[in-house]
Amino acid sequence: MNPTLELLTQRRSERNYTDEPVSEAMLEAILLAGQRAPTTMNSQNISVVVVRDAAKRARIAELAGGQPWIVKAPVFLCIVADYYKTGLAVERAGKQQVINECLEGVMAVSTDAGIVLASMATAVNAQGLGCVAIGGVRADVQAVAELLELPERTFVILGLAVGHVASQLPLKPRLPVSTFRHNETYQAAGLPQAIEAYDQTLVEYWQQIGRPDGLNWSNGLSGNYSRNYRPTMKAALAKRGFKIEES
Questions:
Q1: Which pTM was predicted?
Q2: CB within 10 Å: which end of the chain, N or C, has fewer?
Q3: What are the distances in angstroms from CA 128 to CA 37, 103, 139?
Q4: C-alpha 173: how far from its chain's center?
């Protein structure tokens, strides 16, 4: 298999790291890959705050709901939705930026953040390192922003813990590719059966890695998707300059 394709198809979320530091050369390669990722209309509306400081990583781990791998990883990359930077360019052109107050603006920067993270994660794996994406950085948007001294119209939308892997777990199974690929039109037939089979497959995976308490996919997903698990998000974003007026 092509080496790049092998990296992509063997990707794992790694949470167990050694104490070995990530070199500056490795880090620069990761960041360059992220910077070169595509963004909506070349807006380059993403920035990355590199956090090596142990105390700061511990605080981020706490704010993210208690995630010890943020502390264990020697580097934590905070992916910033950055409409402060773009606002400077808009002002230079003699206009006023409003995209940060539009739903499309949030959707665009969220999409771009995911693309940047994927590019950086591939660069991480290409250098023999491991990483795990962290969405919990949005649990307290304002506190994380204050910790990193972010300007207005910005917030940390994603995080990426990076380090040398201490021990690698087996590849976590996925739903069949048939539930992902749809030819010409969306194919709903067979989805319930595929989900039922995957529930059992995932339980077997948890047992394989010594986690007999692991939930099947349906129960795990329903724990969050049956409720608004971040009900204060709209108010938190408004405080950061993302006051979405559209319904």
A1: 0.96
A2: C
A3: 20, 38, 30
A4: 20
